[in-house]
Every structure is written in C-alpha cells, then in structure tokens.
Amino acid sequence: MGPRVTRCAPLRGPRILRGLRSLRGLRVLRSLALAALVACGAERAGGKADDGADPAPQAEAERDRAVRLLSRASLDLRGHRPTLADLRAVEADPTAVDALVQGYLDAPGFGWAYAERHAGVWLTPLNEADFDQAAYPMEDELAVLRAFGEEPLRVLAEVAENDLPYTDLVLADWTVADDFLARHYPTDYPDGATGWRRVRWTDGRPAAGVLSTNGLYWRYDSTQANANRGRANAVSRILTCRDYLDSVIEGDRDLNLLDQAAVNDALRNDAACVTCHASLDPVAAYFWGFYNHFSFSPAEQSTYHAEREPLWEVYGGVAPGWYGQPGDGLRDLGLQIASDPRFIECAVERAMEQLLDRPAHLADTEALVVHREAFIDGGLRLRALVASVLRDPAYAAGLPGSADSLPAGLDPARAPGLRQLRAAQLARTLEELTGYRLVEELLDVVATDLYGMRSLSGGLGPSWDTEQIVEPTTTGVLVQRRLAEAAAGAVVTADLDSATPRLLPAGAASLRAGDPAMAAALVDLHLRLYGRRVAADDPEIDDLVSLFDEVEALTGSSQTAWTALLTAMLRDPDLLLY
Amino acid sequence: MPRPNHPSPALRCAALLALGACAAPGAAGSKAEGGAGAAELAAADSAAAFVLEGEPTAYAPALADADPPAPLAAAAVADGLQRLIDHLHALDPLVHHDAYTAMFWGYADPENGCPEMGEHNGMDLWRDECETWSGARFDGFNLNVRAGGWVDGPLSVLTYDWVTGHSTITSPEGVFFQSFGDVDLRVADHSGGFRVWDGFVFGDFVWEDPSAAGTWVQQPTSHEVYFLYERHSAHRTARLDGSLTQLEGPILAATFAGLSLSSATGACAAEPSGSLDLRDTEGRWYTLGLGDGVCDGCARYSLDGVELGEVCADWSALTTWESWPWARE
Description:
The complex is a heterodimer of chains A (578) and B (329).
Chain A (H helix, E strand, L loop, with lengths): L13 H37 L7 H21 L5 H9 L3 H11 L3 H8 L1 H4 L18 H21 L6 H4 L3 E3 L1 H4 L14 E3 L14 H6 L9 H12 L19 H10 L1 H14 L13 H5 L18 E2 L2 E2 L2 H11 L1 H16 L8 H13 L4 H10 L31 H12 L4 E2 L2 E2 L8 H4 L2 E2 L8 E2 L3 H23 L19 H15 L8 H17 L2 H13 L8
Antiparallel strand pairs in A: 1-2, 3-4, 5-6, 7-8
Chain B lengths: L8 H11 L54 H16 L3 H15 L9 E4 L2 E9 L5 E11 L2 E3 L2 E16 L5 E15 L4 E13 L14 E10 L4 E10 L5 E12 L10 E8 L4 E5 L8 E6 L2 E7 L17
Antiparallel strand pairs in B: 1-2, 2-3, 3-5, 4-5, 5-6, 6-7, 7-8, 8-9, 9-10, 10-11, 11-12, 12-13, 13-14
C-alpha cells in the first residue's frame, strides 16, 4: 500500500485545479499513446530483470537505474544523451552519477538548455513571418525572425548560465542580441562581432531585463482597443504563473463587444470584469512605450517609444501599477515583480514542471516549498533551484523500462511518467550522436515550424495560444523515421572513412555477423542511444545482427548494412523516451 | 518526516506560500534536507523525508535602486526644451519629400519593372523588392502625391504633398533612404487673407545623402507631430500637437498638445499655451506649467507634482519666419 495522500480542498487554487485537470487529461492521452510506443520497450527492458521470473541482482538493478538516470539528467540539462564514456563510468560505479550530473549542471550550455525548455511557456519563438517581407525589408527575414523570438529566452539563459540572481530577469540593464538583431536593434553590439552576447540599449528604454526586450512585444503585440492587456497577461502568466485567461467569467452576455464605450464602462463597473481588470489594466498601462502605431514595422518595433509612455491617459485612463502599488515606467514594474513572492514561487513551479515534464499539483506542495527554500538559500541562482529539483525523489521516478522505479515513500501522485524528447532535444540529440542536423535557411527545421516539422514531431507549440505539450503522434513517428534515415546515412558515410568514428565502432567496415566485436558494438549503441544496458546475447542484438547480415547479403555493401542497422535503431521509440 | 493527516498551521502557510496565496512569514527558516551541492540523484529512498523542516524563509529582497539619480536641474531641462523647439522649427516636411523625389525618381526604372508601379485611388503606388540594372535597390511600398489647385472650404489649396508607405531605397552608391510612415503637407490660401501650412510628420525617416547633412532626416528622432502655421500680413501663428522621441541631450522624449503661439498684437509669441511634458533619459516625466499668464518664455517645471524650478526658452523662431515656417539648414 502506498503512502497516504493528504488532500486539502481549501488549498486548491485555480492553477492547481487546472493542473489537476490538465494532468488527468494528459495522463489519459499519454497512457494511450505511450502504450503503443513503449509496449515493445517495456517488454525488452523487462527481460530478465522485470518479468519476475529471474530477478536481477540488486547491484545490476542499481546500474540500470543509474544509467537511465544519467541519460535523463543529460537530456534535461544539456539537451542530448551522455557520452559512452560517461555511461560506462556509471555502469561501473553507479555512485558516479551524482558527480557527473553535477558536472552537467555546472557546465557551459546549461543556461540555454534551461531557457529552451521554457519556450513552451514563454511562447516567444516565432513560427512564421507575420509581416509583409517586401514592405518591411530585412536582409534575412528568417534569421531575424528566429532571433527576435529567442531574445527573451536568451535573457533567461544569460541569467541561468552566469548564476545571476533571478531578479536580474526583470531588472537587468542589458539584453542579449546576436549579429542579426544587432542590425536592427539600437544597442552597443560591437562592430564585426558575431553570436549572442550581452548588450546595452542605446535608445533610453528603462532597465527592466526581459520586460524591456523587443522580442517579448514582437510576440505579444497589442492594439489600441486591447490596450496592452494581452501583454500584461503574458507577463503575469510567464513570470507569476497567474493566467487571467484561466478565470471563469460570468459577465453580461448582452454586452456589445463592438461598442468600445460600453466595454470600457463594463471594465470599470461590471463586477465580473473588474475582478480581473482591476489588477490587469494597471499592468497593461506600463507597456505603452512598446506600442506600435504601424504594425509589424521593424523601425517601430526595434526602437523604444518613450514618448508613448503616457498614452495610458488616452487609452483606458488607468495609471500604471502592480497590485495596488503605483509606478512610473517599466523599471518600477521590474522592481515590483522582482519584489513579489509570486515571482519566485512561479520560477520554482516552472522549474519543477519542466524537469518533471508535468504540471504542478497539490501533491507537490511540500516539494515546492523545499525547492523554494533551496532557491532562496542559493541566492536565487537557477542552478541551485535545478539542483534541488534533481534531488527531488519524483525526478528519478518513472524511468523508462523500470517497473520498480517509484522511490519508496514517494506519493504516487507525484511520480511523473516517461519523458519524451521535445523537438529541439531530438534535433540536438541526433546531431550529437551523428553530426547530422536538418538545417534550411539557417533554421533548425526540426526545432521550428518553418515547414511544420516542430508540430509534426509532436511538440505542440510554441504555438500562439497554448502552452507546450509534448506527445507521441503518428506524424512524430514519420519525422523520426525520416530523420533516422538521413542521420544514419550521414554518420555511416563519415564514420567508415574516419580514423576516429563518431558513432560506429572502429573498423566497422570489416565487422561481420558473428564477430564478438559486432555484438559488443551493438551493446554500446544500445547504451549510447537509449541509455539501456543489454547483454551481448540479448535477442535484440541477435535481431540487429540478422538485419545487418541480410542487408549486406542483399546489397553486398557493408555501408548500406550499417546504414540500415542504424536507421532501425534511430527510429526506435526508445530513442525518444527517457 | 511522516505526512500529517491535516496540515499544521506552519505547513498550511508553507503550502499557501508555494501557491502564492499568502505573504511570506517573517521568520528565517531552516533548510531543506540535503545539501545544495551535489545533485544526490541516487538517494531515491529519501522521498518520505523530502519536506522542509521549520518555517520557510521569507522572501524580502532589498531591490530598490540604491542611489537614484537626482532630477534634472533647471539648466538641463532648459537645454532639452530648447533642443526640442529647435527641432520642431527644423521639421520641414519638404526635406523628406525632396529626399523621396531625389531617390525614387533618381533611381527608379519602372520601364524595366523595378519597382513595379501600381495605382491606388488614382495615385501612383509602387510595391516591390527589386534591384535596378544600375544597382539601386527598392524594398517595400510607397505612395507619393504631389498635387494642388483645388478649393477645400475656405482654403484654396496651392500644393499638397504626401509621402506614405514603408519603404527603403538604396542608391547604387549605397546612399540609404527610409520612409516608414507619413509626411503630409498642405499649403493653402485662406479666404480670410492668410496662408496656411498644415499637415504632419508621423514615423521614422532617414536620408543619408550628404546634401541633407544637418537636417532632421539625419537624426534618429521618431515623430508624431501635427502642425498648423499661418502667415498673416503682420503676424504669424503656430500650433503644434504630438510627440517625439530620440532627441539628443538630457531630454529624450516629449509630448505636447495645443502648443499655440501668435505674434499678433496682444497675443503671446514668447511662450505658448497648451501642455508640454518632457521625459529625461532616466524615465522621469517633467511637466511644464505653460501659459501661466506671464508671457516671458519661462515656466515652472515639476516632477510628480513637485515643483523643481523654472526653465526658460526661446520660442520666437516659430513665429518670426518670413515666408516659410521652417528653417532650412
């Protein structure tokens, strides 16, 4: 019997309720979809260890678990699977996993990996150019578009990467720009420089970190009638986890929404409206400096319009403020948000949600308090927060192929399920494994929706209005299949001619079915690609050897046989699950 | 730590804290079990102990800006105000119209389709992204009207110039021209016996040609300025509304409404009526008390309702022109 779950109905806030609903729905969907994907994997992984007939020794179980855990942490913290050397080290000594994971956490690149996971929350990476490219000339529209969308996340990444206090997210007097943005942004980006770097604005905009980025407002545009309310909700949702759109509204159904005067009156006098707008509209009043008279004009959007800050007097008449505290300008808003406990608690909730890959809910309360404490104790450094979540027993629960992975004492309600690679992780994983990346016009095709590949691969989002949910889909299988073929072909071609092959064993061209070295190579590939230990005499190894043998017999080509073998392995669902 | 069947007050508050539903308590808390260093992933059997002992630490950061800069002194505000007046006096719409004429008609090759010419309500319109045989580049769309000779109520319109669109033109030599927005100028004779210049400059405009050195199209200023100038036989009037930003100097931006000056006898040409607010580079807005009954070009300025001093400026350029309202430098 599992531990008793204490439920406390009065504590259920809207977000928690939403989380419960979402979680329930997600779990139903996932249980259906994943069932098909993992059926074979679970069967394979069960093998001797999980079928109960021949329990593996405890030490072997610990090795299995440590290997899987290392793979999960590597994918979460770095976006790709561990090296074979790291996996072998953990296989030899399961206690080595802690130091290796700490190394992943401390390593350069953590910041962007962390920020990229939040793309589904921030929803700033854009999918398409929603402007007339002839009317609004840019030298390289797609590159600029990508950079626009990344800018806010790059600020988050900079904070995470450099162990800056999380409050810098809304207080910094800098942004992060690359050489594409530098052509359009008024910043001190150095002439001749390339790549993302911290820069300062030169157009006199307030120092308010991500609240002063162009990218945030390019993504969250507004109109005069909307009066920045959508922006205010985006800021509220992203930074304090309060989404006004989650509220149930019982307003006047006869209100003519085309009658602006009537709408304005309702916003001030109708109780159903006032409930939200009393706090939303003052936040919205801060953003008029980013209001654009000419929609989608790069000149309008790249430069801060200080002269428009007082437009709240004209449109709405509600003065800037944050939950009753008046303010002047975005700097004040940054200070108000940074001082609000909800800002910190939301960061904690987001971090846990991203790393557990599920919404937070009531059963997480105690753990969230622990993570919050670690975050504050760590000087509001995101690495300290992430380290706390990694220590959370729920993090290690639900490892692929493990029937016994629920830690003793862990509330089953807290246990997340299998994780599935997000589109960006899939692209990076394949690149790290094979050197192959599907790039078109400077864009990572799998990680964007230039050709719809991100959506097809199963990452629903970042779309315009929904948070990211990653789910197994039929089209995802097709994307994986195509990528597997291309990546396998690329790496085999390169490795067979290389003295230091990337993925294939040295001397792969001369290996034949029956060679012990062939079986050993396939054991290594299982470990590398799936974070899964198999024995050299595992039936799956036999199957792969047979596949290699048959293809070579048919074609007379070792290269084709290796390509077929790797294609099969790279399109295995186990590559996606961790 | 075993789970309580019912949350204790401390735990309940901790829970509420995590939900953002109550203020942080003041007591300093003890720490979560487990150090802040190693990830300790292997400790899978510690689930039951993964709770905070003691009270959560209050979140009470000291974030206020330590030394906010002092408000601008009167001299700095006066300097900014004078720069604003000088800029408005130099904001000749025809500078941009001339730039457009030079760039479009100087480099367009519509016979060879660059840019493709169209028509909009009987007016010429181009929309294209192309490069001419000579190497000039056209991007965007633009409509240009140069007309006149009609009657509009009490006004006999002499000339009407309108450039609108979002376009850039780059000459083969690399001279850049940008027209993002509208520049509109109507010159008309009023039946009352005076001449009128009215219109607006709204958007972001650039012309890097050396011949435009020193003019407003070579400054980074972004405008939304509406103007009305009148030339009477013995006096001039000016009225300005709007806002602009990216001024140089201590004042970054300004917004104004109903700024009115008149050099007529008995009126005031030294100081306008209307409202005027100036924003410094630190984000503070100063309000000028114009039209205080003393026509001396000086006004009290205040920040958040607190008077800080008096600033004076020379507004005379807006009403002492002879035949054209703007300075053409």
